[in-house]
Amino acid sequence: MNHPDAYVKTSIQEQIGTIVFHHPQSNSLPAAVLQNLATAIDLAGKDPGIKVIILKSAGEKAFCAGASFEELIAINDAESGKRFFSGFAHVINAMRKCPKLIIGRVQGKCVGGGVGLASATDYCLAMETADVKLSELAVGIGPFVVGPVVEKKIGGTAFSQLAIDAGNWRSATWAKNHGLFADTFGTIGELDKAVDALAANLSRSNPEAMLELKKIFWLGTDDWDELLLSRASISGKLVTSDFTRSAIASFRNKG
User: Fold this and answer.
1) Quick one: pLDDT at residue 254?
2) Other CB atoms closer than 10 Å to residue 190's CB: what's the count?
3) Is the Cα torsion angle 91, 92, 94, 100 positive or negative in sign?
4) Angle formed at CA 241 by CA 235 and CA 247, multiple of 5 degrees
5) What are phi and psi of 52, to 5 degrees?
6) For residue 106, which of 54, 63, 128, 226 is within the disulfide window of CB 3.0 to 4.6 Å?
7) Number of neighbours of residue 152 by Cβ within 10 angstroms
């Protein structure tokens, strides 16, 4: 069910690997994009020609709209639901286990799984207009798969606020104050200049030192291969309920 114009592309320049994902529906994440994204991150981590990774989405509007409503509404059984949500687990785990530091470049709004992607980067820079929202509870599910990485990044209290107040946006300033964004910028040009400067500095840093730092950053997450898949089972079961199917259809129709 992937859109023909959706893609994940990797480019390499001066030992900086840039991974770009795109989907015409506000950079949403259907299963095919999730799979390709996890593969691209894994390959970039293994590429000796890459010392640091930039993760970004295409365009100047939404960074990521999260799960594809088209695919969610088509899920008919819990096992299919688990397979779909496992896609998010695989991407987060690929980012967590990648031996290179990952810089996030967030040019616009983040919803659901998009907040999870931003949280899974090691250092995230964003636009001042990059509001965030965990909308899962509003459609009858819950941020179960992305929950551990969002909570790790911004803390339990801030995560619970996002998860519970699922219908409202939090500003990029809120996200910066809670540690999701390291800094925010007023223009795309300023954002890209900061991302490029940081990536260039890191590309000249000791790769062994960066690897050891990354191990420290992700200390205590060794069980996430199993944890996130078990969370995917919860979402997979909930997405087949009449309540959730009705809520997703309503949200999709509003869009």
Assistant:
1) 66
2) 15
3) positive
4) 90
5) -150, 150
6) 63
7) 19
SS3 sequence of the chain: CCCCCCEEEEEEECCEEEEEEECCCCCCECHHHHHHHHHHHHHHHHCCCCCEEEEEECCCCCCECCECHHHHHHCCCHHHHHHHHHHHHHHHHHHHHCCCCEEEEECCCEECHHHHHHHHCCEEEEECCCCEECCHHHHCCCCCCCHHHHHHHHCHHHHHHHHHCCCCCECHHHHHHCCCCCEEECCHHHHHHHHHHHHHHHHCCCHHHHHHHHHHHCCCCCCHHHHHHHHHHHHHHHCCCHHHHHHHHHHHHHC
For 7-203, give the CATH class: alpha beta
- Taking the C-alpha atoms of residue 22 and residue 59, their distance in angstroms, rounded to an integer, is 8
Nearest 10 degrees: CA dihedral of 193, 120, 13, 183?
A: 10
Beta bridge partners of 29: 67
The pLDDT, as a whole number, for residue 195 is 98
The pTM score is 0.96
What does the domain layout of the chain look like in residue ranges? 7-203
Answer yes or no: are the C-beta atoms of 63 and 26 closer than 8 Å.
no
The CA-based diameter of the chain, rounded to the nearest angstrom, is 53
Give the tokens for residue 203: 């590309």
